[in-house]
Design a protein that fits this description.
Layout (H helix, E strand, L loop, with lengths): L1 H15 L5 H13 L2 H16 L4 H21 L8 H19 L6 H23 L19 H27 L1
Helix pairs in contact: 1-2, 1-6, 3-5, 4-5, 6-7
């Protein structure tokens, strides 16, 4: 959401030299029209992932790859049919696996990894906003409408993982500052 607002304000300031509340209007419209998709997609993703999580790692990876690619392909070949948000569900399931790996290996305790992730994530976001404002690049998004394609899904995965580490780093930093 913050990336969307920043990108919209950047476009307005650079290309029209004005300040407008249009990005806030778009955000309110988005929340009113499409925010509940996440609850349905996450519920279905957890239902589907539950038996997958009990399989051997090799089978998990194979199934998760097939499911993710099915979500991407369905966006291309079945763009107007998204019953029960199945496209979103298929794109969310691998992130449950990634979250499980982060929890198993306690990656949130590695301060160097978190700091590096925060820096790289910030640089990637700045680059994406700049390229998007020039209309060279479409920022991958996974909200009530899907803008993830085969061209930008690697950056979507990277954004998701590094963004999670970025949030954990900020949270850990704020806790340290509050204890001083």
């Amino acid at each position: 959401i913050l990336l969307f607002l920043f990108s919209e304000f950047f476009k307005l300031i650079v290309f029209s030299n004005t300040f407008s509340l249009l990005p806030f209007y778009k955000l309110i419209t988005w929340v009113a029209n499409g925010a509940p998709w996440f609850i349905m997609a996450m519920f279905l993703a957890k239902l589907i992932y539950w038996p997958i999580a009990r399989m051997k790692w090799e089978w998990q990876l194979l199934l998760l790859l097939i499911i993710y690619l099915s979500g991407l392909l369905s966006h291309y070949y079945i763009p107007n049919y998204n019953y029960a948000w199945f496209q979103h569900t298929f794109l969310l399931i691998p992130y449950l696996f990634i979250g499980r790996l982060i929890r198993i290996y306690c990656l949130w305790d590695n301060l160097k990894l978190l700091r590096f992730s925060a820096i790289v994530f910030s640089l990637i976001i700045i680059l994406q906003v700049f390229l998007s404002s020039l209309e060279i690049y479409v920022i991958p998004s996974h909200d009530h409408s899907i803008c993830i394609t085969f061209e930008n899904f690697p950056i979507h995965v990277l954004n998701s993982i590094l963004g999670t580490f970025f949030i954990i780093y900020i949270s850990n930093s704020s806790i340290i500052i509050m204890n001083i």
